[in-house]
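Dear colleagues,

For the upcoming journal club I promised to circulate an example of a predicted protein-ligand complex. I picked one with zinc ion because it came up in last month's discussion. The inputs are reproduced below in full, followed by the predicted structure.
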Amino acid sequence: MIAKEIRAQVGDICRALRRDGLVVGTAGNVSVRVDDLVAVSPSGLDYADLTPELVGVHRMDGTAVAAPLRPSSELPLHLQVYARTRARAVVHTHAPASTALSCVVDEVPASHYYSAMFGGPLRVAPYATFGSDELADNVAGALHGRAAALMANHGAVVTAATLPEALELARYLEYVCDLHLRALSTGLPVRTLPDAEIERVAGLLGDYRQSAPVGAHA
Ligand SMILES: [Zn+2]
């Protein structure tokens, strides 16, 4: 079983996402993996009411160990990400800048050096219906060697070693996407940083690098 303190963090992170304007209502979802169990936020419950007891725990095949409520519709996405990366925490948002950018680009280039936090330029996973296995597959693929990805016409996903780290990265992702959107909106060409500089910065930001699912893919 996953400790109550860890399940409590799922609710805390959901409330922080809403407080920070990264989700509206209950549009985001949050999970954490401990060994081969995954605790995930339930579907549609007001985050204010999300107690540790209401955070469901599932096996990697999706079967419930203890889940008093229906799990997030994006449970397949969370499970696929855990199956294909070294992530131990996954945060999915509909944050405005990330989502706007997901509607207009196929990749978020390294316009700000913070891109190094995520392993470099970010992919935009092709659109598929929310909750579908196809979307889960697209997103897990887009995360190859990266700690985050956008989801076309939908939102963003961030992975990390812990939930607090995932929340922090989600904030930085929204910031980076907001900057890029503003740069694009000038209509001028956006200057981007070369791979070598992103690698250098990644080295300097080693702590973030450790939480990225780099090289963990089949
Ligand atoms: Zn969503």
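Two points we might discuss: The longest strand covers residues 29-34. Residues 74, 92, 94, 130, 154-155 surround zinc ion (CB under 6 Å).

See you all on Thursday,
B. R.
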